[in-house]
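QA checklist item 7 of 12: single-chain prediction sanity check.
[x] sequence parsed
[x] length recorded as 403
[x] structure emitted
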Amino acid sequence: MPRRLFYVATDEEIKSGKATDIYFIRTKRILEAKGLDKVRVVAEVTPSKLPERWPWAILCGTEEVARLFEGIPIDVYSMPEGTLFFTRDRKGLRVPVMFIEGPYGDFCVYETPMLGLLCQATGVATKAARVKKAAGDCLVVSFGTRRMHPALAPMIDRAAYIGGLDAVSNIVGAEAIGQKPVGTMPHALIIVMGDQVRAWKAFDEVVEPDVPRVALVDTYYDEKVEAIMAAEALGKKLFAVRLDTPGSRRGDFAEIIREVRWELDIRGYKHVKIFLSGGLDEYSIPRLKKAGAEAFGVGTSISNAPVVDFAMDIVEIGGRPCAKRGKLGGKKQLWRCWDCMADLVAPFGHEGPKCPDCGGEMEPLLRPLIKEGKIVAKLPRPSEIRQYVLEQLEKVELEFPIE
């Protein structure tokens, strides 16, 4: 067996069903031996309780699921990627986000990779959406790929962007979303150059003029001192100063921001924005925004977001409802009223219900993704999915707003 350079599964290993748990391989063998591998089933994917008491989540990873199942003789219905979902409907019934219909022996080995594709990407997209909701109109950039395995960089940055972030810093991550990477400068540049002003001026001299000039201002001196130095060195060219000091030695990051803003303003540098990074999340951002921060680089809290725990369960065999304990049998449709974001679960094929809150029309959320192994749904560009997410975020609130 050839030695791996990096411990990641290849596209071929995932697509062939090798990146699965052994008990699915054994299950497939047993069913084949007993002549049951072609029994037609419906298996639905549902979320359990969301992490950190999130009231809602953003579905992500469905395009990869479509690629995983492409060519397998099954049907898949799913919420569109980027759909904001709740774990329960208005009646308290568990919500399906997807269902798979076909011979169980043809798709059973794909349960493990399918869930992995959905669980992690949905967690990242949801955390990003919460961060963007907290930041509002402020620029938010994904800085977190350095905290995770580099093979995951495209997935992380794609999910973060879909969740609402404005840009990403990783090159391969930016390629995955069809955007240019965005970034500032590391402390290493300043340290190697031996002088802050020299480093800032070198950046301005060498880097393309269309890249905003953002000076890192917390390497050696007090943040407000270095901010003034940067403004005086670059003048009108300076777009922003970046503070990477979440754990200030004085213990109050917001107070530092107020000082920097004041000192820049009274010297005529009101055009210079304050860009923050380091240890940020949806809970810390509102207070820092109120203090004067206008842009945020958010890393670990998004890239290391808790996964959303999805499960796949068989709910129908040969057209007959069935389910294990704690699950509801039968193929289902999820209906939504987009005016009041009310959801209702109903048996598949039944007429759409009226909204229980406003009496309005409801739309089905589970739509054809794959028919007999062929992808039939449009797979939107990340920018289109992101816009869809932002529109939905206007209709919901964070569970723990920060005063």
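[x] summary fact logged: The longest strand covers residues 40-47.
[ ] second reviewer sign-off
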